[in-house]
Amino acid sequence: METIKLNDGNTMPILGYGVFQIDKNQTQKCVEDALSVGYRLIDTAAIYDNEEGVGTAIKASGIKREELFITTKLWINNISKKNARGAFETSLKKLGLDYVDLYLIHQPFNDSYGAWEVLCELKKEGLVKSIGVSNFYPDRLSEFCFHNEIKPALNQVECHPFLPRFDFENTMKDLGITMQSWASFAEGQNGIFDNEILKAIASKYNKSVAQVILRWLIQRGIAVIPKTLSKERMIENISVFDFALDSSDMEKIAEIGKNEFIICNHRELETINFLLNLAK
Ligand SMILES: NC(=O)c1ccc[n+]([C@@H]2O[C@H](COP(=O)([O-])OP(=O)(O)OC[C@H]3O[C@@H](n4cnc5c(N)ncnc54)[C@H](OP(=O)(O)O)[C@@H]3O)[C@@H](O)[C@H]2O)c1
């Protein structure tokens, strides 16, 4: 597995397994399957309500803790100086772990500055190895870095061929922050798996559309965490290190994108109000 070196010196697998929208009763089995086929990074969140399933699968796998990279996230109602530590302790307990590898502020709203102070303390105490953010757009991320001594190691954002985020890529490179794509497959929406350009490239390399998308992101240095319930697809999605897209195919995929938000635009007033209401 290829890895990425984060700005705090820690190393992270470039590809992992995401468990958003996996029912809590199915999570243990899915994560056990993922670990059995070679995934070592698992991405969960307090709001996914399946941290226990992730923890049980980790325990059952018998894999050494240091070989795993576990990410979880602080949900919006707890993004504050007052609540962040308690919320972290709840996540840690549900996961049954002594520490998490990466802890993210899930949304760029509420008191992210106060919460960040707590995340910095958790890092100093060794309860979290790396700290980062999610859904921070370039302007907010730049400001956040400007005002904080410790910069986020990573920013997890919606990124797929319809929303390639070249603007983010440059800002994050300048700031030294790793970009991780969520919804690399646009959650299967917008006909992504039937896209003619992606299908033609996939057939050229004798790979699937899913593999081409993941490869395109990885070759840009963007980390990925695809979700699937199927063990066959887990194997398919992790089998992306035995081929490379040439520069003309990289460009063809870059041209698909019209900067379409398929899942969630954090600049849309409706989305902002929806999330702010959840913070109450
Ligand atoms: N930070 C955030 O705000 C945020 C938001 C959303 C997600 N995330 C994280 O990012 C992870 C990935 O994003 P996501 O789950 O939203 O969506 P995604 O990975 O883009 O797409 C998952 C969808 O693609 C299908 N799929 C997976 N592999 C496939 C393949 N090889 N061929 C065909 N279909 C395939 C899955 O179906 P099956 O399951 O039926 O195979 C599912 O419908 C999440 O699980 C979560 O950990 C973070």
Give your account of this protein's structure:
The structure is a single chain. The protein is built from eleven helices and ten strands. The chain is an alpha/beta fold and 280 residues long. It has one domain: TIM Barrel, CATH 3.20.20. The strands form two sheets. It has an eight-stranded parallel sheet with strand order 3-4-5-6-7-8-9-10. α1 (24-36) runs parallel beside α2 and α7 crosses α8 (209-219). The radius of gyration is 18 Å and the shape is globular. NADP nicotinamide-adenine-dinucleotide phosphate is lined by residues 18-21, 43, 106, 134-135, 156, 182-188, 193, 208, 210, 225-230, 233, 236-237. NADP nicotinamide-adenine-dinucleotide phosphate binds next to α9. Residues 21-256 form the NADP-dependent oxidoreductase domain. Pfam families: Aldo_ket_red (PF00248). The record marks 73 as: Lowers pKa of active site Tyr. The active site is at residue 48.
